[in-house]
Amino acid sequence: MANIGWIGLGNMGRPMTKNLIAAGHTVKGFDVVPAAVEAAAADGVQAAGSIAEAVAGADFVFSMLPKGEHARSVYFDAGGVFDSASTDTLLVDDSTIDVDTARALHAGARERGFRFIDGPVSGGVGGAQAGTLTFMLGGADADVEAVRPVVEAMAGNIFHAGGDGAGQAAKIVNNMQLAISLQGVVEGAVLAQRFGLDPKVFFDIAKVSSGDSWPLRNWYPVPGVVDISPAEREFTAGFSTMLMHKDVGLALAGAESEGLDLPAASLVHEKLQKLIDEGWGDRDTSVLIRNIDENAKG
Ligand code: NAD
């Protein structure tokens, strides 16, 4: 069993550490918000008062932070992971961040003699609680194999996506595609209703036809069609509009660095921003239907 240092005990980090502890690992955790550390301590995490304390003696350090700027600070700042950890420690950043920052973290780690993996996850808070997250790991083969037994306690699927930044690239492109296909589903759901189709009848047809998609089957944005859809609970919980906006923004920033114009992604990004401006940022991203039909009810 491993000694693990964990930085960032928020909505995802806390349940992920709980699964590591259930699998028999020892976890020392730090968060800038003391209440987050206290809450995790109730699940068996050893409370650390600093990054240095969390990473001392760790075989592996994981971080689960909001954005690239937080990850840069946690690794590069004085008193951060690079300053405090032993170079024997394998470092894994599970946050969803931009590819350029992920590559900078790999380079910074390598310069200092560390092994580093970018390892974003898919599956949301539910997947974190259930230990069924999909991990997309970017880094060297040997490092991915070394961390695999630990990641298994938190994962349903583990993919080695490729080299430096490949995990983030896979995650960002996946979520961008999800946002674009969701936009198709919300437009289709409203038009089908305006044509007088029963939503459930249209759903049953599309599900086995060429209009099928993951958001159609999981997030159909009209109540009474899909039990697990956020539309059944006023678009609460699920995957927030704010997080989707962040991820599509990361895809667009990456596309710009690559000299690519992605018109559908740009349009969905604008539509997500409009919802955030109107106060819907914490609702599930299928609330996108409100841009088409402002009377749409979850
Ligand atoms: P969160 O905001 O709930 O948690 C992040 C935690 O990091 C917070 O507790 C914050 O206090 C802490 N933090 C920030 N700066 C810190 C620092 N310098 N040192 C120590 N702790 C610091 O966010 P979350 O929902 O747990 O998401 C974390 C990451 O996972 C994000 O990048 C998100 O995009 C990604 N993600 C989230 C979900 C989801 O459904 N919530 C799903 C997949 C991926």
Automatic annotation (TrEMBL):
InterPro entries, A to Z: 6-PGluconate_DH-like_C_sf (IPR008927), 6PGD_dom2 (IPR013328), 6PGDH_NADP-bd (IPR006115), HIBADH (IPR011548), HIBADH-like_NADP-bd (IPR029154), HIBADH-related (IPR015815), NAD(P)-bd_dom_sf (IPR036291)
Gene3D superfamilies according to UniProt: N-(1-d-carboxylethyl)-l-norvaline Dehydrogenase, domain 2 (1.10.1040.10), NAD(P)-binding Rossmann-like Domain (3.40.50.720)
Record flagged with keyword Oxidoreductase: yes
Pfam families: NAD_binding_11, NAD_binding_2
Pathway: Amino-acid degradation
Keywords assigned: Branched-chain amino acid catabolism, NAD, Oxidoreductase
Residues annotated as domain 6-phosphogluconate dehydrogenase NADP-binding: 3-162
Domain 3-hydroxyisobutyrate dehydrogenase-like NAD-binding: 165-290
Protein family: Belongs to the HIBADH-related family.
Cited PANTHER family: 3-HYDROXYISOBUTYRATE DEHYDROGENASE, MITOCHONDRIAL, 3-HYDROXYISOBUTYRATE DEHYDROGENASE-RELATED
Annotated protein name in UniProt: 3-hydroxyisobutyrate dehydrogenase
Species of provenance: Brevibacterium salitolerans
